[in-house]
Amino acid sequence: MLDLPFAFWIAAAFVLGLIVGSFLNVVILRLPARMEYFWKRDAREMLELAADDQAAPPDIARKGSHCPHCKHPLAAWDNIPLLSWLLLRGRCRYCNAPISIQYPLVELLCGIASAVVVWHFGVTWQAGAGLLFTWFLVAAAGIDFRTQLLPDSLTLPLLWLGLLVSLIPVFVGTREALIGAAAGYLALWSVFWLFKLATGKEGMGYGDFKLFAAAGAWMGWTALLPVIIIAALAGAIIGIILLRVRGQDRSVPFAFGPFLAIAMWIWLVAGQPILGAYLHLTGLQ
């Protein structure tokens, strides 16, 4: 199979990314709801309050897809990634309610990002690890964008996976990964507390620390500074645009995790060319 044209592998990665993106839509929508349900259930138990009769939100993997408006189960042909949304013109087949643009956007983003990873790394172990890295980032960024929450169930496995792949090593060695994970966490943890001591406000959440630690685990400590610079630039530009589109002022908080995820992915697939261009322009190389 390795003798197949390289274009085949890129196309296969795109299709696989669309399929995974369809599942990640489910994760983005259902995981926060399930987390909130179990938080409230545990809190009621600790406070010795009466149990809530509310049913748990749908399971991520075992519960079939359904329309969020009319609750009608969706057939297999209603769940074809990207294509079904286009054929249905963005509306439910059963109740004609609009289907969120999030579904095709996440699928398309995941498909393109997966194809770029394979195009960049080739048919290698690096590509396989890069795909896992990409899919985790898409899920984490999607949830943070919607809820301003970065779940431990995504950030911590991503961190541990980064440390594990460093044993091979795939991208960086174990020493660089361990230093990167510790430095990434401590860097944003320090910024958090300095900002809180100076203003009395919390500028970011602990999930950002863990996601930045994962960046260090996957790409080493040398990637941390450029990643945070790219994330800050992306956050400033995209954040201002979003605030103006929504008609909100700058005092409205927005999630930093999506911009951090964007920066991590950019550095994974284009870090060396970006670094080389910077060194060339500054005359350092």
Salient structural properties:
285 residues; mainly alpha
Written account of the structure:
The protein has 285 residues and is an all-alpha fold. It is 67% helix and 0% strand. The protein has nine helices and no strands. α1 (6-46) crosses α4 and α5 (152-165) runs antiparallel to α6. The protein starts with 5 loop residues before the first helix and ends with a helix.
Question: What is the fold's blueprint, element by element?
Answer:
Blueprint: H1 6-46, H2 83-87, H3 102-121, H4 125-147, H5 152-165, H6 174-199, H7 206-219, H8 224-246, H9 257-281
Instruction: Sketch the major β-sheet.
Output: none
Structural class: mainly alpha
Instruction: Show unreliable segments.
Output: none
Q: What's the total number of strands? A: 0
**What's the number of helices?**
9
Kindly estimate the percentage of residues that lie in beta strands according to DSSP.
under 5%
**Rg, Å, rounded:** 21 Å
Q: What's the overall geometry?
A: globular
Mean pLDDT figure: 88
How would you spell out the order of helices and strands? HHHHHHHHH
Helix content: 55-70%
Q: How far is it from the N-terminal to the C-terminal residue, by CA? A: 40 Å
